[in-house]
Every structure is written in structure tokens, then in C-alpha cells.
Design brief:
Elements (H helix, E strand, L loop, with lengths): L5 E9 L12 E10 L3 H15 L9 H5 L4 H6 L7 E8 L6 H4 L5 H6 L4 H8 L7 E6 L6 H10 L14 E4 L5 H20 L7 H7 L5 H5 L6 H7 L29 H6 L3
Parallel strand pairs: 1-4, 4-5
Antiparallel strand pairs: 1-2, 2-3
Helix pairs in contact: 1-8, 8-11
Amino acid sequence: MRPFTHRIFSDFSGDDGDPGVAGASRTLCITWVITKEEDIWHNQGVVLGIKRTIGCRPDAELKYRSLRHHPSRRKALALLSEAKVEVILVPVFKERVKEEDLKDPKTKRLVSLIHYVPIGPFSEKFFKRSDTYFQLVFDEVGWAGCEEAIRAQFQRDKRLDWKKARADWLLFTKSGSSLMLQLADVIAGLGREYVESLLGQRLPTCVVCWLKGVRACSYIKAGRSVGRASLMRLLYPLLLKDDGGKAWESGFTTRPPGVQRDYLFIDCLFGGK
């Protein structure tokens, strides 16, 4: 049996409810946490360190909501810098979704679809490497038929050779028994908190720099930040980068299509280049 060289652990933060209804999240944010097989033990140690910092038992499940208002939150989240992972973060701005079947939470179409979306940026970096064989591990989804719908999304992808794949290539398991899925939950929650801090704010007009091919950003010149910048400063070093060292549309990609250019500032403000 061919051994896995990499494992991807995925979880999401938020819900698929109507963002205009009280109690529903305004965004839905999924993350893929990519780790080399030999780094899993190290990364599990990072999660245990976060638990120790907030007084959480090693066998208790770590959730981002446990961290969000904890007095030791800053110290605990700083440990993410020690993780040996690459992250793909996909925020979905539900207010900008137009398709009715995606907007309707009864269909669960949005939940099943977002599990698949990160395959795009992942394939750009990893599918060209013949020495890479990965396992994809999702947190269990309780809604009837949802796991089957997620699996079907991947089965339709012709880039994936299902005939040669191991039976456990695509796995659903309980996050309570997986330290790495708990890490994915923390990163997804952190990403969602950041992007929701941007809602209602004026964002940098980065498309001007992008079209001109020059950096004339008043935000950089004035040292201005956007949203809860401290959260993205924690996340940015972990984001998957393209061959040019950029996270936009690689480790940080937004949905629905058409909103990507609003977030070009991710690399300029947080990439330090």
C-alpha cells in the first residue's frame, strides 16, 4: 500500500443559514491544513501547547470558540507560528451568493461545495509533483447525504485517479479524536473572525495598483491596517503561497467568484514585500 506523503485536515467555521437572519453567521469559512507526514507529531504538539496555555485537558476537544474570549488567547494563538503547515483559507461571503440552491440551507449545497473549493489552489502547487500522495481528512458532517455529496464532488474531478487511490484517501472522522482537525477548526475560526471584521469597512482600492502594475497604496504609506489586522498577521505566514510568494488566490481565495479583487491587499499589507 502506497504511504501518504502529506495529509490535509479540513474543517469550516460558520453556517449556511441566511446571513440576514439573527443568529446566522455572515460568512462561511473553510480551511485545508496541509502537513507533511513527518511533521504531524510536531503539529500535534503545537495543539497540545495551545491547550496547556488555556488550561484545556489534553483529551478535551479544542474549539476556536474556546479561545475567542479567553484571557490567554493571544499567548495561545502565538503558538501557531510554530506549526509546520501550509493553509488554504476560503471565506464565502454569503450575502453575495446569488444562486438560489446555494442560498437555501435546506439543500446543504453550499456546505458540500465549499469542502471541494480548495482543490483548485492545492492542485496548482501539488498536482505537478509526482512524489506527493495525500490523504484528505474531513470533520464528520452530520446532515443526511452531505458526506456523499462531498465525495461526489471529488469523484467528478478527472485530475484525481480514484482507481489507484487508497480506500482511505478521503476520510471523514470525529474532530474530538483528531488533534489536527482541532487545529483546522482553530484556523478556520480565526480566518472567519478576520474576514467578518472587514464587513462594512472600506477596503483598499488595490485593483488600481493591480491594473497599473505599481504600488501606490496609501494604506502602506500611512501604515494603516484593515479589520482586525492582528488576526491576519497570525495567519498570513501559514498561508500557501504561489511560485511568486503570493497568498492571494493561492492560500487565501474568496467566494463567490467575482469578489477576489476586493482582497488583493492581503499580500501587500501582510506579506511584508
